[in-house]
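Justification of computing resources. Each target in the renewal requires a structure prediction run like the one illustrated here; the chain below, 296 residues long, is used simply to show the kind of job we budget for.
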Amino acid sequence: MNAPRFATVPEVREGLRSVDYLADDGIAGVVYLADRLGKPVLVEGPAGTGKTELAKAVAKMTGSKLIRLQCYEGLDESKALYEWNYKKQLLRIQAQRVAEGDGANWNEIEDDIFSEDFLLTRPLLEAIRSEEPVVLLIDEVDRVEVETEALLLEILSDYQVSIPELGTVMAKQIPLVFLTSNNTRELSEALKRRCLFLHIDYPQMDREKAIVLTRVPDIQENLADQIVRIVRSIRQIELKKSPSVSETIDWARTLVLLGVQNIDAQTAKETLHILLKYQTDIAKASKELSVDAPAK
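Resulting C-alpha cells:
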C-alpha cells in the first residue's frame, strides 16, 4: 500500500486550488478517500464539467505521472493493456534462422521473442509497472464494450496483470485511478461496486464565477458575473446540449479578446456560437436573450 498522499480533505482542496481547479468539499473528500482506500473513482456528469480536468489537476498537484487511456468503441486488450511486437519478432526469427540455418533451436527462439524486448506496453500495463507515482485516467469508459469493461474490472480489482509468456506483473505502487463517464450507457454493477462514485454537475453560480475569474486572468469581475448569469439562464432552456463549464470559459475569453465590458443582447447573440454548438440551440437562446439578460 502506498504512503498517504494527503493528510486532510482541506489539504486536497487547497492543493487543487493551487493548480487552478476549484473543488468543493465533496470532490476533495472523494479524492482524499480514493488515496486512503486505494480505490478507483468513477466520475460521472455532463460533458465539460471538469471530470477529465480533475484527474489532470490531481496529477499536477501531486507531481505524479499522468497516464491516459482514451476509451472508444472497439478498444481491446492490445490497445489498452499490451501486445507483442509481431514485426520485430518476425525479423528476429528470420535473422536467427539465417544465422543457424535449418538447425535453429525453436525453443530458444521462442523464449527470446517473448521477452521484454518485444513487449509493447499500453496505458494500463504502463500504469501498473511504473515505479513512480501515477494518476491513471480512463476517459469515457462508457464508450467501451462490456468485454473491455470486464478487463478493466479485473485489473482494477488486484492491480496486477497476467501475461502468459512472462507471468504475473504486480503493481509496484497503487495508482490513483479516475474513470470518467458521460452516461451514454449504463456501466456494470460490478465496476460501480469497485469504485468510489463522484457526480460532477454544473457548478453553482458563485463557483462558476470563481472558475471564470481563475481561468481567465484578464477578465473584470463585473463581466464574469454577467457571463455566468447569462449561461445559467441559457441552461434553463431545453437544449440539445447545454453549455459546459469549458464553453463558459471559452466564451469569457472571447469576450475579453473582443474588448467587451458589458454584454448586451446583440453582443450575446453574435457570440453564441462559442457557447452553443447546435444551430437550433442558438436559435432558442437568441429568442430568450434580452437587453437586460445580465440582470436575470
